[in-house]
Automatic annotation (TrEMBL):
This is Acyl dehydratase. CDD domains: NodN. Residues 11-112 form the MaoC-like domain. It comes from the Bacteria.
Amino acid sequence: MLSEAFRTGAPKPSRWYAVTPERVRAFADATEDWQGIHLDAEAARAAGFDGPVAHGYLVLSMLSAMVYDVMPDDLPPGAVSVNYGFDRVRFIAPTLVGSRVRGLFQIAELQDRPDGVRLRWDVTVEREGEEKPALAADWLTLISWKEET
């Protein structure tokens, strides 16, 4: 059963992802959130940050890419993973533009379904070289597939 591939104890890390100015600008343009703390060093410093900070929702959205780094290699052909929602999200510390982040994923709950599995992930997004993480979340995803006949 596929669900056995997810039953591991230790959190699995994704690769490191760069939080570049270009990525932050693209997110600002996509969401129309051009607040100065994200795009302007002076505005960010005036607000008490060490420099421009990424949008919290940008870092949260990056979970969709990060999770593929920890998925098992033996998913059935045609398997689809979709976001099912969050039970909890906490933005713990700001992510500076120019830094790198990675996700630590641990399965907290797995529910078999006729067409796949529902997963509840305990996720922490680490900031490279920093003690406090960017965020912590309880994230729900569905992985579904059609059985071959």
